[in-house]
Write a structure and sequence with these properties.
Elements (H helix, E strand, L loop, with lengths): L2 E4 L17 E2 L2 E2 H8 L8 E5 L2 E2 L2 H9 L4 E4 L6 E6 L8 E4 L5 E2 L3 H13 L5 E2 L2 E2 L4 E3 L2 E3 L4 E2 L4 E3 L2 E3 L4 E2 L4 E3 L2 E3 L4 E4 L2 E3 L2 E2 L4 E4 L2 E3 L2 E2 L4 E2 L4 E2 L10 E4 L2 E4 L7 E3 L4 E2 L4 E2 L3 E3 L10 E2 L4
Parallel strand pairs: 1-4, 6-8, 10-13, 11-14, 12-15, 13-16, 14-17, 15-18, 16-19, 17-20, 18-21, 19-22, 20-23, 21-24, 22-25, 23-26, 25-30, 26-31, 27-32, 30-33, 32-34
Antiparallel strand pairs: 2-3, 4-7, 5-9, 6-7, 28-29
């Protein structure tokens, strides 16, 4: 296919530093999702599309069938998110706005929303790994090769778990949760509605809710991420000295790559830990760091 997904680092995703197209959600990279949206192209046309732009199926079909050069612009910030070039067609391209069902990935909670949408839409199991006797699956599960779910695990809702993971024993996974490859979710851990990257260890006695946890993160025992404000309001997110409404009543933490927490770390809701940082045992993270 003549489709180029342009590498895009989105500043608003901080502390996630991974190029947007390489981020995995519900078991696939965003780049793979974008490519899968388009039908086969009818000729030698070339499409360039930003990795933070998720076209709707209707938008992708329209571009595939267009008869002239076309540009799609995001009216919110003026960014050209897609360009179609048809060899032999001259003249200025036709410019059209994003349709309402297409979207941009601008902030970490957009990744949570995408994960909820994709995982929540699952209607069948795809279990390649092993589910031991004594585990309970109360929803739909995608389980990768080499992964094992140990006795006492209770999965409530839908979940996508990658390859070579160890889940349990005696942990609780709920909501719409994605766990990447080579992860360990261990004894007495509760994970609720999270997007978890690759090679993440949440070994024991920890809780994470409504959070994004990036690659190569290790949680010390008893690490707790809070996700609910006492006043019941939506969580706000500080970006460029301005507080943004996340639109989410429950919102945990955004954890960057290669973070290590000390035992009994407590993290306030709506906070972030930047890539490579660590906490000491018993630390209370009341401000992003």
């Amino acid at each position: 296919m003549g489709i180029e997904v342009i590498e895009t680092k989105v500043p608003g995703l901080w502390p996630i530093t991974t190029e947007c197209g390489a981020i995995r959600v519900a078991g696939r990279t965003i780049r793979e999702m974008i490519l899968a949206t388009f039908p086969p192209l009818p000729d030698a046309r070339q499409i360039s599309i930003r990795a933070d732009f998720l076209p709707s199926p209707a938008c992708a079909a329209m571009i595939a069938a267009a008869t002239g050069n076309t540009v799609i612009r995001d009216a919110a910030d003026g960014t050209i998110v897609l360009q179609l070039r048809i060899p032999g067609r001259d003249g200025a391209p036709t410019e059209i706005p994003m349709d309402e069902l297409s979207s941009r990935i601008r902030h970490p909670w957009d990744l949570l929303a995408l994960n909820e949408k994709l995982v929540g839409a699952m209607t069948a199991n795809r279990i390649v790994g092993t589910v031991r006797n004594g585990a309970t699956i109360d929803g739909f599960l995608e389980l990768g090769e080499g992964s094992v779910i140990l006795p006492g695990v209770y999965i409530e809702g839908n979940a996508v778990i990658g390859r070579n993971c160890k889940i349990g024993p005696n942990c609780y996974i709920r909501g719409n949760t994605t766990v990447g490859d080579r992860c360990h979710i261990g004894q007495a851990v509760e994970i609720k509605n999270c997007l978890i990257g690759e090679h993440v260890s949440v070994g024991h006695l920890s809780y994470a809710g409504d959070s994004v946890i990036s690659d190569n993160v290790n949680f010390g025992a008893g690490t707790i991420i809070s996700n609910l404000r006492h006043d019941g309001r939506n969580h706000r997110w500080l970006e460029n000295h301005e507080f943004l409404d996340t639109g989410r009543r429950k919102f945990g933490a955004i954890i960057g790559e290669n973070v290590h927490t000390g035992i009994n770390t407590a993290i306030y809701p709506g906070r972030s830990l930047s890539a490579g940082c660590s906490t000491v045992p018993g630390e209370i993270v009341s401000h992003s760091k």
